[in-house]
Amino acid sequence: MRRTLFLLIIGLGGxxxxxxxxxxxxxxxxxxxxIIADINARITATPVALPETVAPQTDAYLPxxxxxxxxxxxxxVLVSQKDIGAGYRIIAPFQLQDGRQIMVDRGFALAAxxxxxxAIGPATVIGxxxxxxxxxxxxxxPDMNANIWFARDVDAMAAQLQTLPxxxxxxxxxxxxxxxxxxxxxxxxIPNDHLQYAITWFSxxxxxxxxxLFFLRRRGASKVES
Length: 226
Fold this sequence. Notes:
Layout: H1 2-43, H2 56-59, E1 63-70, E2 75-81, E3 85-96, E4 101-110, E5 121-129, H3 154-161, E6 167-173, E7 180-181, H4 194-225
Parallel strand pairs: 4-6
Antiparallel strand pairs: 1-3, 1-5, 2-3, 3-4, 4-7, 5-6
Helix pairs in contact: 1-4
């Protein structure tokens, strides 16, 4: 009897824990979906001029329309595009009409077009502000000689280009750059695996209950035989 009770407690207790983890992931899913919806609303809002003061905490994803001059001295950030292959994000200095210097992520160029000559000069750029968190302790230092960066580090890129630490990721530009395709800001890269996690926990709970029932029935059968 004690052993049967023990199996029952373990079976129900373990299933309860696994089910609670599943519901926790469902709650996390709703939380993440709300965040993504808010970011999407910010991305697609009506573009405005760059504010006088800009802060990553309040202005991330802010849609901007900027008139100025696209400068020379690009930074090339190594990336890979699905179904396309390796290439580079083209980061260029951009002087606004008020004199401020910021950076523009002009888009993606294939590796073969890394050092191609690109048009510079007056431009109107529409895009979104972004401070991507792409660096960690394993990110290699940029290869300055080859002009190859391995992540968009806004502060480091701004120091290199002598601009403000402000990155405008272009959605469109009046200044055409052949071979460069825009990589606008979106939420596709924001991880949202909570539904899969919830399904995993609920599946484990079902398996746990099934195994517990199996052992209880097996014990009941052994008692009948004895």
